[in-house]
Write a structure and sequence with these properties.
Distance between the termini: 82 Å
Strand order of the largest sheet: 5-2-1-6-7-8
CATH architecture of the largest domain: 3-Layer(aba) Sandwich
CATH superfamily of the largest domain: NAD(P)-binding Rossmann-like Domain
Number of helices: 13
Mean pLDDT: 92
Protein name: 2-dehydropantoate 2-reductase
Function: Catalyzes the NADPH-dependent reduction of ketopantoate into pantoic acid.
Number of strands: 13
Structural class: alpha/beta
CATH topology of the largest domain: Rossmann fold
EC number: 1.1.1.169
CATH class of the largest domain: Alpha Beta
Keywords: NADP, Oxidoreductase, Pantothenate biosynthesis
Largest sheet: 6 strands, parallel
Helix content: 40-55%
Shape: globular
Pathway: Cofactor biosynthesis; (R)-pantothenate biosynthesis; (R)-pantoate from 3-methyl-2-oxobutanoate: step 2/2
């Protein structure tokens, strides 16, 4: 190698090392450590442990869940093929201890959004991006009303995960999908960076520019699945085998609503969604069904009531949705 080439090579290496030494760590906070936040927070924490300080992952948890995580020295995650313990950079019930971060994965239930937004404010800086992973068709729009000066992206995930006990997250299947985006026509540098980070963490992450379509499609599926499993009080496998006509009616009705609302729904969307439901583990159910069984707050207004109200506003008749919504609301009242 010529002397000049050697000098150039050394210069490149030195510049690279200087850049790495001056590089600030990427900071991610996961707010809400249930099934969704727990799994993705754990995967990110595993990645952070391998980055020598270039990635910091903080978890916000509470009560017995937080105590169990601290006692065990991490969060245990059990999937059909893995059983591991993940340790974050920080786990706390006080977001102020974390400070400002680059990204916040907001993983609570919809009915906790307003309270949660108030709690995460100490972690929001000038360049913070918030990615809500809640069930709902208008989650980002509603969150922006609380945080008008903060960038709120859109996202949705496909995952069968539960907080089975304090300190324990279980998955019914290894397969998961993670979609997110800013909604802008072209990807931003911050989106590319997060997509690369999620992928490096072993997460099946995608950053489509048409994120609204993915949100819509996910909502159609989760709305129908949640409504049917809660109404019939059965897991998805039993609903498919015993109540498929009613399930098909719900799918056709929600597709009709979104055609009226947006005008761009594929003709085969019902079969697409039905195919996804058939691939779900037969024993799996919706979080809304689980909430009904536990007798606590539910997402019935977000997942079922939203469809009924939008249909009424657009003068679209959805008899199956209306029937099931009335029954579910009456159960909530009782």
């Amino acid at each position: 190698m010529a002397a000049d080439s050697c000098k150039q090579f050394r210069s490149q290496i030195l510049n690279k090392l200087k850049k790495q030494m001056n590089q600030q760590p990427i900071k991610i906070a996961v707010f809400g450590l249930g099934g969704v936040g727990g799994y993705y927070g754990a995967m990110l924490a595993l990645r952070a442990a391998a980055t020598d300080g270039l990635l910091e992952v903080s978890w916000i948890a509470r009560g017995a869940h937080l105590e169990a995580i601290r006692a065990a020295g991490g969060l245990r995650v059990v999937t059909p093929s893995r059983d591991f313990l993940a340790r974050p950079t920080c786990v706390t019930d006080n977001p102020a201890e974390v400070g400002t971060v680059d990204y916040i994965l907001f993983c609570t239930k919809d009915y906790d959004m307003e309270r949660g937004v108030a709690e995460i404010r100490p972690m929001i800086g000038q360049n913070t991006k918030i990615l809500p992973l809640l069930n709902g068709a208008d989650i980002a729009e509603r969150m922006r009303t609380y945080l008008p000066d903060t960038v709120v992206w859109k996202g949705c995930v496909y995952i069968s995960a539960r907080k089975s006990a304090p300190g324990l997250i279980t998955l019914e299947a290894d397969r998961e999908l993670f979609y997110f985006g800013s909604g802008l026509p072209e990807q931003t540098d911050d989106e590319v960076r997060l997509a690369e980070l999620l992928t490096a963490a072993g997460i099946r992450a995608y950053n489509p520019t048409d994120i609204d379509w993915y949100i819509m499609k996910k909502f159609m599926m989760i709305s129908v699945t949640a409504t049917a499993t809660a109404y019939f009080d059965k897991p998805i496998g039993s609903v498919l085998t015993e109540h498929e006509p009613e399930l098909l009616s719900l799918l056709e009705e929600v597709a009709e609503l979104f055609r009226a609302k947006y005008g761009q729904v594929p003709d085969d969307v019902v079969q697409q969604l039905l195919g996804k439901q058939r691939k779900m583990p037969p024993e799996s159910t919706s979080s809304m069904h689980s909430d009904f069984l536990q007798g606590g707050s539910t997402e019935v207004e977000t997942l079922t009531g939203y469809v009924v109200r939008e249909a009424e506003a657009l003068r679209v008749d959805l008899p199956m949705y209306k029937r099931m919504y009335r029954e579910l609301v009456s159960r909530t009242a009782n």
